[in-house]
Design goal:
5 strands; Rossmann fold; five-stranded parallel sheet; single chain; 131 residues; alpha/beta; 5 helices
């Protein structure tokens, strides 16, 4: 079984990762931690490497000796974060997605979109949200 966690470094994402760790232990699953970055300009290899290292370091600190199987992925594309997470879940044959959600105003959702809403409506597998 594979559990995808949408990770952006927020407290909600950290809570989602903790929940994924608990679930992974119960069902012997692998956690795939995915951070999505929307690309608006030409790629800078050094910036990408620094972002990957920061993600790996944050996750290593969060797991802090926990032997749960996991891997980290940094997705960089012109798609939105929600589109990236759905695309990756299809490609990676993900069995479940866990993501943190935060309350946003209706205007903010209208202008910025909602990653969680897109994932919930379009994911090919069950989605668990935590706030």
């Amino acid at each position: 079984m594979k559990i995808l966690v949408g990770y952006d470094g927020s407290n909600e994402a950290k809570d989602a990762l903790k929940l994924a760790q608990k679930r992974a232990k119960k069902v012997d699953a692998k956690i795939v931690i995915v951070k999505s970055v929307t690309r608006h300009h030409p790629l800078d290899h050094e910036v990408i490497q620094a972002a990957e290292k920061k993600l790996e370091d944050e996750i290593r600190n969060q797991f802090n000796g926990d032997n749960t199987r996991y891997e980290t992925r940094l997705l960089v594309s012109s798609r939105s974060s929600g589109e990236n997470l759905v695309w990756f879940s299809e490609l990676g044959k993900i069995d479940e997605i866990i993501m943190g959600v935060r309350k946003r105003s209706k205007v903010n959702k209208l202008l910025m979109g909602s990653t969680a809403q897109h994932v919930i409506l379009n994911a090919p597998c069950p989605v668990v949200t935590i706030k």
